[in-house]
Amino acid sequence: MERGAPSSGELLEIAVGLARDAAATAYRMRAEGVSVAATKSTVTDVVTAADRAVEMQVLDALRRLRPADAVLGEEYGAGDTEVGADGVRWILDPIDGTVNYLYGLPHCAVSLAAEVDGEVVAGVVRNVITGEEWTATAGGGAWRDGERLRCSTETDLGQALVATGFGYDPKRRAHQARVVAELIPHVRDIRRLGAAALDLCLAAEGRVDVYYEKGLAAWDQAAGALVATEAGMLVAGLGGRPAGPDLVIAAPPALFAPLHDRLADLDASGGP
Ligand code: IPD
Predict the structure, then answer these.
(1) Please, are residues 47 and 40 in contact by the beta-carbon 8 Å criterion?
(2) Can you state the percent helix, strand and coil of the chain, rounding each to 5?
(3) What is the pTM of this model?
(4) What torsion, rounded to 10 degrees, do the Cα atoms 223, 228, 229, 234 define?
(5) How does pLDDT run across 177-215, given as a tens digit for each residue?
(6) Cα atoms in the Cβ-side hemisphere of radius 13 Å centred on 162
(7) Which residues of 71-80 are buried (b: 16+ CB within 10 A; e: fewer)?
(8) What pLDDT does 3 receive?
């Protein structure tokens, strides 16, 4: 790699170490009792003390290990447009599935990805409660706890189990709910599990067939999208655009076009 950037394997090794320590902190803080520290975009978009503590822990560790790198984190932002000296930027969601974390539902995770020159090359998603851990490097496959992952082989959208999520803004949710209402008669069923990073990892191993969502930030999807891609899924937006805030669609190749077209018809990337 140029300018002395570490290999994707080296970046993954750092990411995994940090994610394990971060998940341990989140787990311990959950056991000690959790409460809302603040709200963000709406009253239901909460931040816990653990979100902040975990992000600070990872930021401090990265400053020590990789002082020249940029970091984009959910709680403290920064680094949004910065790129480190070696072209490396870390993208961190300290706790994805914060509402699940608050309620003690075991579907919340630390998500950490490393980009080089704007391309995600390594990512780890670690479930805070169960300890399940998904990893991927660009071109190196997707893995969970030593097992190589392949996505679903389903070819019929009518048989597909579809995961999705909703934003925090009530108007956006209303639009997303209308899309789901139109989609559900045409698929096996819908799951709303509450953590985008984990939803993408579950899709990567066929525990759901497809996933889509509007409104995701980079930290929600960077690591999980790499895991899904490396497991054989197509991950993109509408009309050939890259996956992004407008829409993320993750589907096995045979299901991508039918799901894409249905979501385009339903204006899934529209609304507020
Ligand atoms: C949220 C979760 C949720 C998704 C939302 C995200 P957070 O992230 O990933 O599943 O539907 O769009 O904002 O707030 O728990 O980090």
Answers:
(1) yes
(2) 40, 25, 35
(3) 0.95
(4) -130
(5) 999 999 999 999 999 999 999 999 999 999 999 999 999
(6) 30
(7) bbbbbeeebe
(8) 56
Task: Place 80 in a pLDDT band, splitting at 50, 70 and 90.
Answer: very low
CA-wise closest residue to 222 among 204, 197, 247, 198: 197
Instruction: Say how many Å lie between the CA of residue 191 and the centre of ligand 1.
Output: 14
Q: Is the CB of 220 under 6 A from ligand 1?
A: yes
Residue positions counted in the chain: 272
DSSP 118: T
Q: Is 254 helix (H, G, I), strand (E, B) or coil?
A: helix
Q: Which residues contact 129 (CB under 8 A, 6 or more apart)?
A: 27, 30, 106, 107, 108
The Å distance, Cα 237 to ligand 1 centre, comes to: 18
Coil, strand, or helix at residue 142?
strand
Distance (Å, whole) CA 223 – CA 113: 5
C-beta 224 within 6 A of ligand 1: no
CA 195–ligand 1 middle distance (angstroms): 5
Mutate to test the pocket of ligand 1, among 96, 128, 162, 190 (most ligand atoms within 8 A of CB): 96
Give per-residue burial for 201-238: e unless 16+ CB within 10 Å, then b.
bbbbbbbbbbbbbbbbebbbbbbbbbbbbbbbbbbbbb
Interhelix angle 8-32/49-65, rounded to 10 degrees, is 150
Task: Give the C-alpha separation, 72 to 98, whole Å.
Answer: 18
Residue 192's closest CA among 180, 182, 183, 178?
Answer: 180
> Is-contact 255 154, C-beta < 8 A?
yes
